[in-house]
Design brief:
The structure holds 2 protein chains of 2 kinds. By secondary structure, chain A is an all-alpha fold. Chain A has 5 helices and no strands. In chain A, helix 2 packs across helix 4. Helices cover 37% and strands 19% of the residues of chain B. In chain B, strands 1, 2, 3, 4, 5, 6, 7, 8 and 9 form a 9-stranded mixed β-sheet that branches. In chain B, strand 8, helix 6 and strand 9 form a beta-alpha-beta unit. The mean pLDDT of chain B is 93. Classes of the chains: A mainly alpha, B alpha/beta. Chains A and B meet through helix 2, helix 3, helix 4 and helix 5 of A and helix 3, helix 4, helix 5, helix 6 and strand 9 of B. The structure holds adenosine-5'-triphosphate and magnesium ion. Adenosine-5'-triphosphate binds next to helix 1, strand 8 and helix 7 of chain B.
């Protein structure tokens, strides 16, 4: 590999000629992410109930094709809002887990906090 | 309900930055906005141009003056978030502790998914910031412990620190909108002036009013406003 001029003169100056030279680009900027995209599309925590192997392959092929087909914008403007999801969302957030029993001192703090929040408009100031 | 949670399963992706600026943008749009920093880092205030040693009003402490910056009332919610009484109240069936006439923006630390879980039943929207990096995308499987990502109803993914000159970033954005469609609420460009503003202890809007990231957030806030149902709420209020 051809060595860059600035590098060879630097190596000359420090008297090192035994270094293996390698040019590094931006290590991440142009990385290929398909393996991780594909893994996400096959993960039940992302897509829900275990799809058949064929479904999985179809899904990732479809996304891959659309990605290849999608024109990559030259100017970095935010993307337009995507079309509505065809699949209806199924469920809402889970019930929260019970926690330890309250301590009296904290009860007052919590009440005071919601008092603060509900204290009307700011121009009235703190009025609960 | 007008509680908007900012929480990502991956740390360092700009959750606090987005929470702060979306709060300011929603205030600009006429909402009565409260922002609560539930993290121990207490960095939310920095994006408002406050100093690291400037304390916020503690949520639940009514003794001091309120702190309102850029139209947003700021609270330090770190102690409150850890308080068993708060957590118990949130998990009570039928509890509706948050006022509906204010927009409450909550900044939640990445590690604190427990708090995200407790607040979620009370939230209109959960904003999940991401960056175009493999580890952040891989963390998408942890957005909700029980429900697959594509089935989440009140979740909005935001791709932050986007650099469209890089293949990685462009592909991540296309992938996220193709794979998750409506779940993607928008993207915010990577912008060096974000760090510069903090280093100067001043707000981004004041120092760099033409910051590309700010422009993106203005657009994003409009999308979040819709998703959180705030627009209808405002229309009703003014009717
Ligand atoms: N769009 C952006 N462009 C440039 N820098 C950004 C952008 N968004 C965030 N940053 C910078 O990235 C760093 C991390 O941001 P922030 O603290 O908001 O992340 P976080 O997800 O809240 O982190 P943590 O997990 O520690 O709470 C900060 O220094 C912030 O200034
Ligand atoms: Mg943070």
């Amino acid at each position: 590999m051809a060595i860059r001029n600035d590098v060879s003169s630097l190596l000359d100056r420090i008297g090192r000629h035994d270094l293996r030279y390698r040019e590094f680009g931006d290590p991440l900027g142009d990385m290929e992410m398909w393996p991780i995209f594909e893994a996400l599309l096959q993960d039940r925590r992302i897509v829900g109930e275990a799809p058949s192997a064929l479904d999985q392959r179809r899904r990732s092929q479809a996304v891959q094709q659309r990605m290849v087909a999608a024109p990559l914008p030259a100017d970095p403007t935010p993307p337009p809002p995507p079309p509505p999801r065809s699949q209806p969302p199924l469920s809402v957030a889970p019930q929260a887990q019970p926690v330890q029993s309250p301590s009296p001192a904290n009860d007052a703090q919590v009440r005071a906090f919601f008092g603060q929040l509900g204290a009307g408009t700011r121009t009235n100031g703190r009025d609960q | 309900m007008s509680l908007i949670l900012f929480h990502s399963p991956k740390g360092g992706v700009g959750t606090t930055f987005l929470a702060a600026h979306c709060a300011m943008e929603l205030a600009t749009r006429g909402h009565d906005v409260v922002a609560i920093d539930f993290t121990y880092q207490a960095t939310l205030k920095l994006f408002f141009g406050l100093l690291p040693d400037q304390p916020l009003v503690k949520a639940g402490d009514t003794s001091g003056d309120e702190i309102v910056v850029a139209g947003v009332e700021l609270f330090d919610g770190e102690e409150l978030g850890r308080s068993p009484a708060f957590r118990q109240l949130l998990s009570q069936p039928g509890a509706q502790p948050f006022p509906t006439d204010k927009v409450i923006v909550a900044d939640i630390a990445a590690h604190d998914r427990a708090l995200r879980q407790l607040l979620m039943p009370h939230a209109a929207l959960h904003v999940v910031p991401l960056v175009p990096r493999p580890a952040a995308l891989a963390a998408l499987v942890h957005v909700d412990p029980d429900t697959p990502l594509i089935e989440l109803e009140r979740t909005a993914l935001v791709l932050n620190m986007l650099d469209d000159t890089r293949t990685l970033a462009r592909h991540s954005r296309v992938f996220l909108s193709e794979a998750f469609g409506d779940l993607m609420a928008g993207s915010v460009r990577r912008d060096e002036s974000v760090a510069e503003a903090i280093a100067n202890f001043d707000s981004l809007a004041k120092l760099f009013p033409h910051s590309p990231a700010l422009g993106d957030i203005a657009h994003l806030a409009g999308v979040l406003e819709q998703r959180a149902g705030l627009v209808a709420h405002e229309a009703q209020a003014s009717a």
